[in-house]
Write a structure and sequence with these properties.
The protein has six helices and four strands. By secondary structure, the chain is mainly alpha-helical. The strands form two sheets. It has a two-stranded antiparallel sheet with strand order 1-2. β3 and β4 form a beta hairpin. α1 packs across α5 and α3 packs across α4. The mean pLDDT is 86.
Length: 178
């Protein structure tokens, strides 16, 4: 399969009528734009449920249908690519809203296992189909075979660079840390 290669710089418009701005055909710039588009689309879909995209990510990881109910907060943080403290803050907020339940682990009293409440499951199942449809729209410029190829390639790149996928990775260090 031959995929036409776009120019090294291409033009995009943020909205109709706005001036086109150049975007470099560079892996870092493209990854950032793809992330930006994906988060914005999900944010638009979860705003009426008073959720953030990251909170929806928690519901997706903990739901009964295709998640990991009973996952602990440390495992959740790792899967979301956030630090444990942020995961705890997000889970606490969802717990206060009655969407998630934390249970103390029998094996390690410090660990908390996470489960969606019936309200959390209902919220997840109400929002998930629209999010799946939105992801399909984001990927709609690609035929199905290329969509799968993109996901396979992104998966491989992420797996091979897992050492860099850590919370805070890439942040500028303070002078006192150098």
């Amino acid at each position: 399969m031959t995929i036409p290669r776009p120019a090294s710089t291409f033009m995009v418009r943020s909205s109709p009528g706005e001036a086109a701005i150049p975007v470099r055909r560079n892996a870092l710039a493209l990854a950032r734009r793809f992330f930006q588009i994906s988060v914005a689309v999900v944010a638009d879909l979860v705003v009426d449920a008073n959720l953030t995209p990251l909170q929806m990510g928690v519901l997706a990881y903990v739901n009964k249908e295709n998640g990991e109910p009973g996952i602990d907060q440390v495992g959740l943080a790792a899967r979301l690519g956030i630090d444990r403290n942020n995961a705890g803050v997000i889970v606490l907020e969802l717990e206060k809203r009655g969407l998630i339940e934390r249970r103390v682990s029998n094996a390690d009293r410090r660990a908390r296992h996470l489960y969606l409440t019936p309200q959390g499951e209902k919220t997840y199942h109400r929002l998930a189909p629209n999010i799946r449809a939105a992801i399909d729209r984001i990927l709609s410029p690609l035929p199905p075979r290329e969509r799968e190829l993109l996901l396979d390639l992104l998966t491989r790149v992420i797996q091979e660079n897992a050492a860099y996928a850590r919370p805070g990775g890439g942040r500028r260090r303070r002078r006192s840390e150098t």
